[in-house]
Amino acid sequence: MEQLILPFVGLDVKYIRGCMYNSNGRECTRYGEFKLWESFYRSSSGFNGYFCYCIDCHNKDNLKRKKERAYSEEVIEAWENLENKYSYGDIGPDGRIFHRYSKHRSMKNNFEVWLSVEQFQKLEDKKEFHRKQIEAIKDKRKRGEVNSEGMYFYGYVPSRPSFGYELWLTKDDFSRRLFNDGMAKYLYVSLDCHGGKDERRSEIIGLSEGELYDYIESQFVDGMSWDNRSEWHVDHILPLSAVDNLEDTKHLWYFENLRPMWGPENISKSNKHCPKQLEEYLTKRRAAK
Ligand SMILES: [Zn+2]
Prior knowledge:
By secondary structure, this protein is α+β, with helices and mostly antiparallel strands. Helix content is 36%, strand content 14%.
């Protein structure tokens, strides 16, 4: 955004905490440049209804913070080794309620986000409100419906109240989302029978959501496509039924053990596998951990 710096401020100059201001604008507290009021973001708590530093400085700060976060290896490492001690709704020793882990929060505080009882209640009320709104309209549209712009209806989501909660995606995004949600459910169910999940999906699979989608696509054999998704399933080369604990189940979810295979999910292939091959695979995966 172009910003005007006034060469001549005028005569009606006053001061607020050492910074000049008048009816036209004020000095930005960051670098002391005089700028028009429209060069500042509005802030209900700020002087004259604006922030004390200009939009330029605001954006520079945000960018700097983003860069620092993006490039700090220390933070990335701490985030990756984060122990998921708390889950949503846990009550802390000080009576505050656990919300989530956020990479943007302080590393010293273990990236934890805690809310007061009132904040938490507000959030829950909001969720409940959106849930009810969606409940009332949820039969209006069917997943996969295509509109006149060629967009595919995925579902109703609480994050989009101003769009009638409707989530429309391009054909490509639709099949990605469908695939990823399906895999998440499948992964969760298979880990849950061995005591639940305590690790992020991307860590278990070794690929991000998008990468897994591309990887599976790269393994397509004759005629497979996202358009005939119902005719093939994601198969575990070494079957999940071959192991009986959480750790090994996770190893079998590593992407190298996944491939697309013709045939619907419920007709499971023979669970025969070579014990030697399994042992070799698990030894390799354990060593890689
Ligand atoms: Zn500034």
